[in-house]
Each structure stands twice: as structure tokens, then as C-alpha cells.
Amino acid sequence: MNKLYLITLFFITCQLQSQGLPGLGAGTTPNNKPILHGKHWVAITGKPLGATAGSAIFQQGGNAVDAACAMIAATSTMWDVLSWGGETQALIYNPHTKKVIAINALGYAPTGATVDFYKSQGMDYPPQYGPLAATTPGTPGGIMTMLAEYGTMSLEQILAPSMELAKGYPIEAQTANAIESQKTRIKQWPYSKKIFLPHLGEAREAPSAGEIFVQEDLYQMLAKLVETEKGALAKGKSRKEAIYAAYDRFYKGDIAKEIVRGTREQGGLFTETDLANWKVKIEEPLHVNYKGIDVYKLQEWTQGPALLQALNILENFDLQPMGYNSVNYIHTVYQAMSLAFADRDFYYGDPAYVKSPMKGLLSKAYAKERAKLIGELNDPKISAGDPYPFRNETSPYRELLKKNQAAMASLSPDQINSTLDEQFIADFHSGTTSIETADAEGWVVSVTPSGGWIPAVVAGNTGIGLSQRMQSFVLDETISPFNLPEPGKRPRVTLTPSLAMKDGNPFLSFAVQGGDSQDQNLLQLFLNIVEFGMDVQEATEAPNFNSYQMQSSFGDHEVRPGAIVLREDTPEWIRKELLKRGYKLEFWNKTSGPINAIWFDRKHGSFWGGSSDYGDDYGIAW
What are phi and psi for residue 426, nearest 5 degrees? Predict the structure, then answer.
């Protein structure tokens, strides 16, 4: 590992030297982090140890898929706002087929999870926390499917970093403090309490920053997967077959039985059939072309198409002459996002259950009509449109759409001007992590894994924290007839990796954590590069603005029409003009992410990695 140590030390040294110095790219914006220049590979994710895990795999000869799988596993083990029982969704560029592939490893609603069930519990939405918030685990299947289909290494190799972490690693302050702050809720669940609170009865019951955090149950679960792979290989099975043998043990064997037992003991709904029937889906991604660049997103079981809709709307405006973050630019992009997200809120959902009108929603003609709705003032009552005529159909949801539009139109001044309270902001920006990898062979991977964040219900003696993604369903069809819970259905999630292609080659790979703000930040990153010529590091750190016009996907699913968050150094004349246009202003010291991105330098055959200064996100390149 001496070579890895030197690479990591070199990166840290460069990062420290870069503080306050001009960016290394074409622009002049001071960057808090340096651009990561790599010839062979690049690995970026939410935590330094996660990036180190990816670099270790690259140095053993793995490709970008192998590295991404190891990074998902490591960050899940570190509870980087996700766990092993969460969900994984990815876009992968395969240099051999020249195609972008979509990985759908989102768990689904278990048996008994229906609108009537949750209403019978006195709920307006599925809960934020606890066993009734859990979809079936998706991340283990996502890792194993990606590795089997597109990787080159064994499961044992890519799980080695996470298994070492599970045996004990010095926990970071952010995670340790999150555990302490949530300990009252954690104490409700016996298996969570056993793992997270090693100092029960003391003033601080969670681990302290830097304390060695041990997860023996999780280690044993991972060891079972490796044991199964080894056994299959010893019987003459191929690498791929051996990985899928481990997959079957997780979803159909003794691990599945313990997940179900431990979940039901704590009040959950999982059955063994639920886990056995769940499958990772390898899908065709959606995409639009923006000024010669093809932008790819996952299907409408995510919010990703909202970014594509916003790009289609913005093609009807000449953005570059407006100037970066000018009043007109902020207003135009904000309104485009509001229009796109209004459609997201009503139309997006699991296409395996209710087919959304995506052909109409992503048509340029529909976007042109939506763009006509952008006037000089903010419109806090923007609602979903009707894309069905743009696919030569009549909407089967016309009456529900009218009710939805009427609800927005009837918003009172008090509702429009309501305060952005702390809990609403925390829910709206509920975090996860993001992972970006690329290699010299041409593989590119963009991932936003999530779910099972603290406080998580741990499923029996598996060490697996369960997802809280059921909360993204709604229970009222006038809010969305496409996103109502039923067994086997996936909720519409905020998780949204991105890939952009130019002239048939990778141009930009980018993702961010942050709940409903994700595609807002990613849209602005893309425009920063394409419209304003920023390099990738400048683009990740540049000030963004965030809208709360759309309905939150978390908690009580609230909406704050007209509210906008700007960076606190926004000039006074911009503030005054936005107030005149009807916006409610809030200010933060950082508004840029945390975004991770890779830009592909075709001229020189190298990678440029960018990682914003918003959080702990970190990268290594070589």
C-alpha cells in the first residue's frame, strides 16, 4: 500500500496548498480544492476513506465499475448518510458497446404496504423513520449486479475495504454526533441500540469522534457473502455465477430469513417472498439533447427527468448573455425548475405500475409551451401541465390534474410567505452520498446510493440498516396518481446520477447529495460549464440558488412557493430586484452542493475531477 499512501499524501498536500489560490482551470474563481488531474483513473465520493477504497481497487487492476462497487460498500459501512439496507442507482458508460446503462437497485414496498394500511395507522404520509418506512434492501443487489455484469474482480476483492472498516474504524465526528443527537429514537430499536450506542447509561452514549467503531454483525454478514462466492468458485462456477450465488444467499437464503425475522419483530412488513421476488433492473436511461450535448438520467422512478425537462425549457432562452447569476438568469432558471418540478410532483412514479407520459413531458414542443408561462414576476402557483396532447393522447387523469391545479391556485398569502423552518430545510435536503469513477479503458460510473441513514432500524443480527424510502410515496391521488404505495412498487425517489455525452464520447459525469435540491444543483453545474465556460472545480464550488417551490419528498411533503436560498455574498442590487419580482429570500454561506463531477479532456486524454467545498466529499486521481 506504499504507492497508495504516496498518492493520497500528494493529493492532500495539493489540497492544502490550494487554499485561497486561483483555480487551476480556465477561469479565475478562487477554489477551495484543486482540480484532480488523472491519466489512468479517478475516484470521488462523500468521504476520504471511501475515495481511498476506490483508489485501492484501481491499483489492484480493477476498472471503474469495480472501484465504484467498493466505494458504495465502504460508504455504506461508514454510514455516510446511507447503509447496506438502502438503495443504489447508477448510470454506467460501457466503452465497448458505446452505450449508457441504467441500474435500478431501488427496493420496493413490502407486502401489506398500501394507501389504506398507512391511513389506518392515522398517517397522512408513510413515516419518516422506523420499520414501516423501509423498502426492501437494494444496495447489496445493486453492488453485486454491477460487479457481475460490468466489473472484473471478485466480490471478495471489492468487499475487502468495507470488511476491514466493519472490523473497526475511527468514526468521523459528523456520524458520531448524528448518532448522539438521534439516540432517543435509536433506543426504540434493540438491534440499532446494540450497534450505535456502545456507552449506554453514560452522558454520551454514542461513540466519540476518532473512537474505533466496530460492527461485528455486519462483518459476519459480509463474510457470508464472500464464503458463498468462494464455495461457488471451488465448484467450478464462473466469476459471474459465483457473485450471483452470493446474491441469492442474501435475498433467498439465511441472510434474507434474518432480515425478515428482525424486521417483523420490530413491527415491519417484510416477507421472505418480498426479498426473493425483488430484482435489480438494468434499464434504458432517458436523455435529451441540449445544444449538441446528450444528457442522460434515470427513468421517472427518480426525479432525474426534471433536469431534462428544465434543459428543454431553458433552450428557449439565451442564457449566456444574461450573465452568470444575474437577476434575469436566476429568475429564468428558477421558473424553469418550478415548471419541471411541478410535473415531477404529479406525474413521476414507478413505470412498472403506472406509465407516466414521459414522451410528452420530454418533448421539445411541450417544453416550448411551458416556457411561455415564464413572465417577469415569480409565479408561486405554478402547477403541473398536460403533456398528453404532445403524445397525441387524452389524459386519463384530467380531473385529478384540475384538482391539483386548483389546490395550487388556492394557496393563501400566508402559505406562500411561510417561514423556512429548520426541520423543513433538513427534510428537504436529506442527504446521501455520490460516487464518480472513470478509467483509461473508458468506463464511467455515476452513482447516488442512499437509504438507511441514521437513525436507522437495524434488521436483526445482520448489521444492516434499513431504508427510509417509503416516505417518498404519497397517499392522496390528487397530489400524484402515479406515486401511491402498493406491494412491489418502487417509490419515486430524489436520487439522480447524471452522465453527459458529446460527439459520442463521455463529456461530464456528475452527481450530488441533498434530497430535492439534487437536480437543481446539477442543472446549475451543467450550465456553469456549458454556458459560462467554468472548469469542473469552479463549477462545483460556484454559488447556486435553491428553490422550495416543489413539494418536499420527505417528512410532511410541504411546499414553500417562491422561497429561494442564495449564497450570503449575493450583491444587494440582486437581492432588491428579486424581492421586487416576488421572491422570499434566504441566505446560506455555502450553496454549491456537495457536488462531485468528472470532466473528460478529449484534447489531452485526461480526467479533470471536481468536488465542491460544501461537505466532506473527497477524490483521488492518478
Answer: -60, -45
- Please say whether the beta carbons of 378 and 336 come within 8 A: no
CA 123 to chain centre: 26
Please tell me the distance from the alpha carbon of residue 519 to that of residue 305, in angstroms, as a whole number: 9
Number of alpha carbons in the 13 Å side-chain half-sphere of residue 199? 13
Contact indicator for 539, 565 with CB cutoff of 8 Å = no
Contacts by 328-333 with C-beta closer than 8 Å and gap 24+? 330/545, 330/564, 330/566, 330/574, 330/578, 331/378, 331/578, 331/581, 332/374, 333/523, 333/524, 333/527, 333/545
Q: Report which of 612, 593, 444, 423 is spatially closest to residue 513, judged by C-alpha positions.
A: 593
Asked whether 606 and 42 are in contact (CB, 8 A), the reply is: no
pTM attached to this predicted model: 0.94
The string of pLDDT tens digits covering residues 363-419 is 999 999 999 999 999 999 999 999 999 999 999 999 999 999 998 888 777 666 666
Q: For the chain, list residues with pLDDT below 70.
A: 1-30, 414-431
Q: CA 368, CA 378: separation in Å to the nearest integer?
A: 18
DSSP conformation letters of 581-597:
TTPEEEEES--STTEEE
Q: From its phi and psi, is residue 292 left (phi > 0), alpha (psi between -120 and 50) or beta?
A: left
